[in-house]
């Protein structure tokens, strides 16, 4: 359901407070009036009554009311009339002059006077206490003799509530309808707001006495006057505006003519013609030299103008071919992305939840085939969730964590087919569930009940049957409510068909032992008819009923729902009570007062497939049932003991008469039916007998022997960005290969191109043998949400419920937020945290202050942070208070270096809960060999980030006069689809190259570092590890770094690199210049200390040892 408009009338008195919602569903618009509080329920009911009364008061056949199409206890849903309002017609007419607008006004007055039943106003007979209560105790004799509505008046007949469509006039709002004769002039006053003292007094009294009530703070008179449609004033204002606009248009026309003449003179001048080629070349050359791809689609940029010029000069057919090739390439790239590829057996046991994607608009169907399944699953301790099939995004989202999906009564529209495609991609086991033969068009055509319907409705049913049949055929298995139905479903579905009968749910069982019985001396026979399609079925019992009603005057026949009674019932009309559709609870309460239940069904295949709902419902209230001997009733009713079967007029008459004459028989049969229903059709019995076998057979079997590890990191392959991401990618892959562990990764992404349209949507994919769950981050995010995100918490909780991990391992979880640790604590799942940076203790993740200087605190002083960084004590303390308990509740804290372990222990974290787990790196292949060069090749991999030293290194190189070098800059943001480093921003003497980086892995690292002599690591803050430093060192690349904490732990100063004091730009410059002047040194250089560097396999083995200590 898509919400288009919402308005709350909360300023009214409580008994009139409604919310108006305009929404769209399945391509159609609707208007819903919903109560804001229980006190408004009577007002809502009165609106429904008004529909009937107003219909009877209309005398103009062109006038229609917006129909009520759905009703619940707290709302009414109306059809949305998509036409032209009288208000819009009037506004358009005003632009054409007074004659046109006056014509609309005359039309409106005529509509009021001739469209409804009217009479002459008589204050002596028409003014009642109710009239005075609403409109005040005024002198109404002034209105005597005027035309007024006859007994029923809709005072909401204002311009905006009158819609013209297809030569018909619709009234779309009839909230304020009174059983009073109100003058037509008052109604027109509400539209025109012409000054008239009596009408103004009536209006003020109506608003203050009825609408607003005791809400004295609401300045109703001024507010209402300001909002009224003061038409006469508007006409004058609009006329003046139109005159002003006409004058402006004339002035603009004159200016355009003058400019056109000037431009024409200029374009035809000789100088313009001579210099045109030069100007065009200059523009093209300048654009190409400074071309930036990311500006190509920004209107107004030189790149965009240039592209459009090329487009104009390429033949259209060639342009379309090029465009098609590009689109095909993009489409192929999307298909190649891991989240668009089918999952394998790696992820088979991820989902244990049962998802029901259902048609939810049919109350009884929802109750028996959806709500009852939820109860059954809960009784079996299985997690479940229900989604409407029309809510594609929610359904697709919930599929990601499902093990089984049941499509209940859904047609194979495009969105359902897309959901089935995603179901198949995920490897989720699918079922089609239905409780009627709605999928077989030929059987529907043979059904006499269907044949009696309007041809248009028949056609809709037949078209629907094709869609249901398609959906049935596209699922792997099926579920039927009866064995006969199951046999028909097997014709269209190749999988297994499970029978799951309807049963007695808790809503029904709450009435057990609460039956009131019939105390008024009448014997009441009840028939619950769902729709008009039961007219033919009812004929099975109709003759017997008429006969018995004539014979027994103390016999009453009660019909619930829609039923067209045969003419023969006219003779016993006084003994018949027909009650419209009721909510389930109201219907069940009504059943308590009846004596006999009937369930007539015409014999045939269609009805043999139906379930025994009518018998079950009556049995709860100990009502004896007389039913037709169709398959399900025959299987459950033991004739004469727990019910009666009848197939002819004589049998129906005999069965009913025996119950009418014998209260004892009614009670004994009702009691036996009650006991049998409770024994065989309770939720637990049906769940154990029918649902549990299905779940055991079809739900993916979880690998109980392998411990489940759930890792979490802000990013993950293929969005590899940053050292922590590389580490988790390698560790997850290695640990997942261990026969004792299954690893799943939870990660995030900002982009919406993953077909994740909403924040917090998730999708599953696999990469390098690891199962991944990706969530879309909210964008933009509030600063607080980086560490505390209560909307991310339930997402992660759902994942925990689905995966049931033995241990959760948090890596870098900024954006994912620390809130995801809270569900772990709630579910008693231990978690460990790898402290890749200072995020848990400092708002500045890398402790770089706003002035781009490293903070240099060892033991963090919160007051210092407030004064120098955050400048907001409340925010800083709130963050600290939130994160500290989560950190302290961790089963273990891991750090990638001794430096990092010391930093956390200095700040109050228990030393005995911290372990150093040095990050591993990808070692080079045995064939790795560096290339040689006559100039030194520097590489900087930190991207355009101040804390990584981008500006620091830029200043140094722009101050160096030497040119015998190459500087290679890696722009990390290119992997995220945008550039952050531009060559035009740099001014250096040596060669500058900007690259995307390397494909991470042994091959990519070897290929990159074989052409690098010196790695520059000018970090402006203390870092926990420094992955690229180790990757360079192990490949015999010299490293020049600042004294950046854990970065330096594998560097021996002067032997495999240089360690420079933080922020000492001059010393760093000298080390670079020294390298330039000794370029040949690096051609034969070998690092003598690379053996002390940790590999990923060694780190993984150590990590598994820690896991074992916890689980």
Automatic annotation (TrEMBL):
Residues 235-269 form a coiled coil. Keywords: Coiled coil, Transferase. Residues 721-921 form the Glycosyltransferase subfamily 4-like N-terminal domain. One of its GO terms (molecular function) is glycosyltransferase activity. Pfam families: Glyco_trans_1_4 (PF13692), Glyco_transf_4 (PF13439), Glycos_transf_1 (PF00534). The keyword Electron transport does not apply. InterPro entries: Glyco_trans_1, Glyco_trans_4-like_N, Glycosyltransferase_grp1. Residues 926-1079 form the Glycosyl transferase family domain. This is Possible glycosyltransferase.
């Amino acid at each position: 359901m898509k919400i288009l408009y919402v308005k709350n009338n909360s300023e009214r008195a409580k008994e009139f407070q409604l919310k108006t919602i305009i929404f769209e569903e399945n391509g159609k618009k609707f208007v819903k009036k919903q109560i804001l509080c229980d006190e408004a329920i009577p007002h809502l009911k009165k609106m429904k009554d008004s529909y009937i009364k107003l219909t009877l008061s209309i005398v103009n056949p062109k006038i229609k009311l917006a129909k009520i199409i759905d009703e619940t206890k707290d709302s009414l849903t109306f059809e949305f009339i998509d036409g032209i309002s009288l208000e819009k017609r009037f506004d358009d007419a005003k632009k054409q002059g007074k004659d046109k607008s006056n014509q609309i006004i005359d039309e409106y007055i005529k509509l009021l006077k001739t469209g409804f039943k009217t009479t002459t106003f008589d204050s002596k007979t028409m003014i009642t206490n109710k009239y005075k209560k609403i409109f005040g105790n005024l002198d109404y004799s002034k209105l005597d003799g005027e035309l007024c509505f006859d007994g029923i008046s809709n005072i909401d007949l204002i311009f905006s509530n009158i819609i013209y469509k297809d030569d018909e006039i619709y009234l779309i709002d009839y909230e304020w309808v009174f059983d009073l004769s109100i003058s037509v002039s008052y109604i027109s006053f509400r539209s025109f707001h012409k000054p008239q003292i009596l009408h103004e007094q009536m209006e003020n009294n109506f608003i203050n006495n009825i609408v607003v009530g005791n809400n004295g703070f609401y300045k109703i008179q001024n507010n209402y006057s300001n909002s009224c449609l003061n038409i006469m004033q508007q006409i004058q204002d609009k006329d003046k505006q139109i005159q002003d606009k006409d004058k402006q248009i004339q002035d603009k026309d004159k200016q355009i003519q003058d400019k056109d003449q000037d431009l024409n003179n200029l374009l035809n001048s000789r100088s313009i013609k001579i210099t045109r080629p030069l100007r065009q070349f200059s523009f093209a050359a300048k654009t190409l030299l400074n071309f930036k791809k990311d500006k190509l689609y920004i209107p107004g940029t030189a790149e965009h103008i240039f592209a459009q010029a090329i487009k104009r000069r390429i033949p259209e057919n060639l342009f379309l071919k090029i465009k098609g090739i590009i689109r095909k390439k993009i489409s192929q790239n999307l298909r190649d992305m891991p989240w668009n590829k089918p999952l394998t057996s790696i992820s088979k046991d991820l989902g244990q939840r049962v998802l029901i994607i259902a048609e939810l608009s049919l109350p009884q169907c929802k109750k028996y085939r959806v709500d009852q399944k939820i109860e059954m699953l809960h009784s079996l301790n299985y997690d479940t969730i229900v989604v409407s099939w029309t809510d594609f995004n929610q359904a697709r989202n919930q599929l990601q964590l499902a093990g089984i999906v049941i499509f209940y009564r859904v047609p194979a529209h495009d969105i359902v087919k897309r959901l089935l495609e995603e179901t198949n991609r995920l490897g989720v086991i699918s079922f089609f569930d239905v409780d009627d033969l709605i999928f077989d068009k030929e059987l529907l055509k043979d059904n006499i009940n269907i044949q009696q319907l309007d041809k248009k409705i028949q056609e809709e049913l037949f078209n629907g049957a094709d869609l249901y049949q398609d959906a049935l055929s596209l699922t792997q298995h099926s579920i039927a409510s009866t064995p006969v139905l199951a046999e028909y479903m097997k014709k269209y579905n190749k999988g297994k068909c499970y029978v799951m009968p309807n049963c007695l749910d808790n809503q029904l069982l709450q009435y057990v032992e609460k039956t009131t019985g019939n105390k008024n001396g009448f014997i009441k026979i009840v028939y619950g008819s769902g729709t008009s399609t039961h007219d033919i079925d009812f004929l099975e019992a109709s003759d017997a009923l008429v006969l018995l009603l004539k014979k027994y005057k103390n016999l009453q026949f009660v019909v619930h729902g829609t039923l067209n009674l045969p003419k023969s019932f006219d003779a016993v009309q006084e003994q018949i009570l027909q009650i419209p559709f009721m909510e389930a609870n109201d219907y069940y309460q009504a059943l308590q007062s009846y004596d006999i239940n009937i369930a007539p069904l015409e014999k045939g295949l269609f009805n043999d497939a139906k379930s025994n709902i009518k018998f079950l419902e009556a049995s709860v209230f100990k009502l004896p049932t007389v039913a037709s001997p169709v398959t399900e009733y025959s299987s459950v009713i033991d004739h004469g003991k727990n019910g009666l079967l009848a197939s002819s007029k004589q049998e129906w008459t005999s069965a009913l008469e025996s119950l009418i004459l014998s209260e004892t028989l009614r009670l004994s049969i009702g009691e036996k039916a009650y006991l049998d229903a409770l024994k065989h059709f309770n939720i637990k019995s049906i769940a154990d007998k029918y649902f549990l076998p299905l779940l055991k057979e079809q739900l993916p079997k979880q690998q109980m022997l392998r411990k489940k590890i759930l890792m979490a990191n802000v990013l993950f392959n293929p969005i590899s960005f940053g050292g922590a991401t590389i580490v988790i990618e390698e560790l997850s892959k290695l640990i997942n290969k261990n026969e004792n562990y299954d690893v799943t990764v939870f990660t995030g992404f900002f982009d919406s191109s993953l077909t994740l349209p909403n924040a917090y949507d998730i999708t599953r994919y696999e990469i390098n043998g690891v199962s991944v769950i990706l969530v879309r981050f909210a964008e933009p995010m509030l600063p607080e949400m980086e560490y505390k995100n209560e909307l991310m918490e339930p997402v992660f909780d759902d994942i925990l419920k689905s995966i049931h991990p033995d241990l959760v391992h948090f890596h870098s979880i900024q954006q994912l937020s620390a809130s995801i640790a809270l569900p772990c604590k709630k579910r008693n799942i231990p978690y460990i945290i790898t402290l890749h940076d200072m995020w848990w203790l400092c708002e500045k993740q890398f402790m770089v202050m706003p002035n781009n200087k490293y903070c240099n605190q060892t033991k963090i002083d919160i007051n210092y942070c407030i004064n120098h960084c955050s400048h907001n004590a409340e925010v800083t303390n709130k963050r600290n208070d939130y994160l500290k308990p989560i950190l302290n509740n961790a089963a273990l804290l891991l750090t990638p270096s001794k430096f990092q372990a010391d930093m956390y222990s200095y700040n109050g974290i228990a030393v005995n809960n911290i372990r150093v787990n040095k990050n591993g790196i990808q070692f080079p292949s045995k064939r790795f060999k560096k290339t040689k060069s006559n100039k030194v090749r520097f590489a900087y991999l930190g991207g355009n980030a101040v804390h990584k030293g981008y500006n620091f290194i830029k200043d140094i190189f722009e101050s160096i006069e030497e040119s015998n070098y190459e500087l290679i800059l890696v722009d990390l943001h290119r992997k995220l689809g945008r550039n952050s480093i531009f060559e035009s921003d740099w001014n250096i003497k040596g060669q500058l190259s900007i690259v995307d980086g390397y494909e991470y892995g042994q091959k990519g690292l070897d290929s990159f570092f074989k052409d690098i002599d010196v790695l520059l690591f000018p970090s402006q803050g203390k870092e926990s590890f420094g992955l690229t430093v180790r990757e360079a060192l192990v490949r015999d690349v010299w490293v020049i770094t600042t004294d950046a904490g854990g970065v330096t732990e594998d560097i021996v100063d002067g032997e495999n690199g240089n360690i420079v004091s933080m922020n000492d730009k001059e010393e760093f410059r000298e080390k670079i210049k020294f390298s330039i002047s000794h370029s040949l040194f690096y051609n034969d250089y070998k690092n003598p200390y690379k053996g002390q560097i940790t590999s990923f396999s060694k780190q993984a083995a150590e990590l598994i040892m820690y896991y074992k200590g916890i689980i």
